[in-house]
Specification:
This protein has 464 residues and is an alpha+beta fold. It has 14 helices and 12 strands. The two termini are 59 Å apart.
């Protein structure tokens, strides 16, 4: 089923509303014109009734009226469209003038009590003529007929002709106006929806290689600015995510190529000529180290994949953070003594989480701190309680200044600030990414900042 477009829907709605308004205005205008002529007719009829009433009051008897019709004719001279008839109470017609045949209905209306002359006004057709008139009762001085019925009517053919032409012109103008309003409405809606067509055009041209395209927010109407900004932000997130995914794929290929290349090279060298048993054992030990490195990398990647898809549900148990930190400091003591580095910790509290995963997260941060701390410097580990039940663990060590663009990507997989160190003993670049995943699956968060030559990693979790 073909569904109408938004342009046609709004255009039809606009046309319906404008038609309703124009028809209402046209109807009111037509009724006003007709009412105006009715008021003019009643004013003229009222004036003639006063003349007739004045003339009848001077007549002493009905016989006198029959003998002096010229009085009424003189009073009504010059009004060719006027018809007048005078009846006695018994219905005898004693005077008549004009071409109108008064229907019984108009005669009966004279008895309406409390009605105005306008309310008694009656319009009827007689052949090709249209009349508007009324009938009223008037008193006379004739004792035999004290009440006379006076019917009066105006031939309003000229009024009707004008009203007919006026209505024809008015409704023709209304039809043209409705069509014109509908056309202008369609043009206005089409122009007003042009930003949406820009949206459509942009969505059609966006590809993986053109994620940098953006909508021009400043040229959009106010109602669409927020949607355009949200759309541009979505494109920015997609561009950033796609770039990270591209970098990840490149880094992953590079990380896997190095150990595989080492294994192939060593194997080819060993096969080039006969070797001693010690040589074979040495190369197998070296290959085992590379296999171990590959196994750890695959395991870490699998862990990150599960964490990002919410497939890791940590086992919850009380964890003494101070005890875990102390054990790791003791574990790294030979290494810190070798590098003349001191590690100190402050604070103590209990959190709820998976002990092995939390230990791995703290271990990654401490290992990273030891690796980048210069000789004879101090690494501090602070355990703090913030916002009542919020626990923070802060690891801070001296470090060279790091640009913000690197800080924002320190938790990315395979990310190295110095690419030249990639593939050396610096590791695969998965430690901080794993730490971030562990903290987040526990409902916490982690951040990194630098200040005055020191780098500070801070993660928070809810207190047990």
């Amino acid at each position: 089923m073909l569904r109408p477009s938004i342009t046609w829907r709004i255009t039809l709605l606009f046309a319906a509303l404008s038609s309703t308004v124009l028809i209402t205005v046209g109807t009111i205008a037509g009724l006003s014109v007709e009412r105006h002529f009715a008021e003019e007719d009643i004013a003229e009829i009222h004036g003639k009734l006063e003349l007739i009433r004045y003339a009848l009051q001077k007549i002493e008897s009905v016989s006198a009226l029959k003998s002096v019709p010229s009085q009424l004719n003189d009073a009504l001279i010059g009004h060719h469209a006027l018809s007048v008839a005078v009846y006695t109470a018994t219905g005898e017609k004693i005077y008549g003038r004009g071409e109108a045949n008064f229907p019984n209905t108009i005669i009966d209306q004279r008895s309406l009590s409390g009605g105005s002359e306008e309310a008694k006004l009656y319009k009827w057709r007689d052949g090709s003529q249209t009349y508007r008139g009324l009938a009223v009762s008037m008193s006379s001085h004739d004792k035999q007929s004290p009440t006379l019925i006076v019917a009066i009517a105006l031939d309003i053919a000229h009024h009707q002709k004008f009203i007919t032409r006026f209505n024809q012109t008015l409704w023709l103008a209304l039809i043209i106006g409705i069509l014109l309003m509908s056309l202008l409405g369609w043009l206005a809606v089409r122009r007003g929806l042009s930003p949406i067509r820009d949206f459509d055009h942009l969505t059609q041209i966006i590809t993986a290689n053109r994620l940098s395209e953006r909508l021009k927010v400043e040229s959009l109407p106010k109602e669409l600015m927020h949607m355009a900004e949200s759309f541009n932000k979505m494109l920015s997130r997609l561009e950033k995510s796609f770039q990270r995914l591209s970098d990840f794929s490149s880094d992953l290929a590079h990380e896997l190529r190095t150990p595989v290349s080492n294994l192939m090279t060593q194997t080819q060298v060993m096969l080039a000529k006969p070797r001693s048993l010690e040589d074979y054992q040495e190369i197998l030990i070296s290959n085992l180290e590379e296999y171990d490195r590959l196994a750890r990398m695959v395991s870490d990647m699998l862990f990150l994949a599960k964490a990002e898809n919410d497939l890791i549900i940590p086992h919850r148990e009380p964890i003494d953070l101070a005890k875990e930190v102390a054990q790791l400091i003791e574990f790294y003591e030979p290494l810190t003594e070798e590098k003349c580095i001191q590690m100190v910790s402050h604070g103590a509290t209990i959190i709820s989480g998976d002990k092995l995963m939390i230990r791995r997260a703290i271990n990654n941060l401490m290992s990273n701190a030891i690796q980048h701390t210069p000789i004879d410097q101090v690494i501090t580990v602070d355990i703090r309680v913030k916002d009542e039940k919020k626990i923070c663990l802060i690891i801070e060590n001296p470090c060279a200044d790091i640009d913000k663009e690197h800080l924002d990507r320190l938790f990315d997989r395979f990310y190295h600030i110095d690419p030249s160190r990639q593939g050396n003993n610096a590791g695969a670049g998965l430690g901080l990414a794993i730490t971030k995943s562990i903290i987040e699956v526990h409902g916490g968060g982690i951040s990194v900042s630098t200040k005055s030559g020191r780098i500070r990693f801070e993660f928070w979790m809810m207190q047990a």
